[in-house]
């Protein structure tokens, strides 16, 4: 099974932290995408695609802070769970890397995998960058 790159591990932890800081019960694809804007491999791909990282970050922060208030848990235990979509995206990236014979999953692989979640706001925000 392929291993996660150190920068991807950091991004996954960052996504959970972003949710936890906002007292969200779940980490969503939008938390994940926001974390990926700091991942070296994902940033390289986004840069090649002319993504305005600052605009993307601003859109994601606005969405997370204004639209995901239903995820706030007042008396929670502080443990954040990734959503099913978050888990699917990471698993899909792992399977893709594995099937291609490579041994490391990067943020770029996860970024590409987000596009398969067509109904997500994360994919929408990426497509808006065209």
Count of individual helical segments: 7
Radius of gyration: 14 Å
Derived structural class: mainly alpha
Integer tally of domains: 1
If you average the pLDDT, what whole number results? 96
How many beta-strand segments? 4
CATH superfamily: Clp, N-terminal domain
Helix content: 55-70%
Give the quaternary arrangement of the chains.
single chain
Shape verdict: globular
Biggest sheet strand line-up: 1-4
> What's the CATH topology name?
Double Clp-N motif
Second CATH tier, the architecture? Orthogonal Bundle
Main beta sheet, described?
Answer: 2 strands, parallel
Strand content: 5-15%
Give the terminus-to-terminus CA distance.
34 Å
Please give a structural write-up:
A two-stranded parallel sheet has the order 1-4. Strands 2-3 form a two-stranded parallel ribbon. The chain starts with a strand and ends with a helix. It is mostly helical. The chain has helices spanning 6-21, 29-36, 40-48, 53-67, 84-99, 107-114, 121-127; strands spanning 3-4, 26-27, 81-82, 104-105. It is built from seven helices and four strands; from the N terminus they run βαβαααβαβαα. The radius of gyration is 14 Å and the shape is globular. The longest helix is centred in the N-terminal third of the chain and has 16 residues, at 6-21.
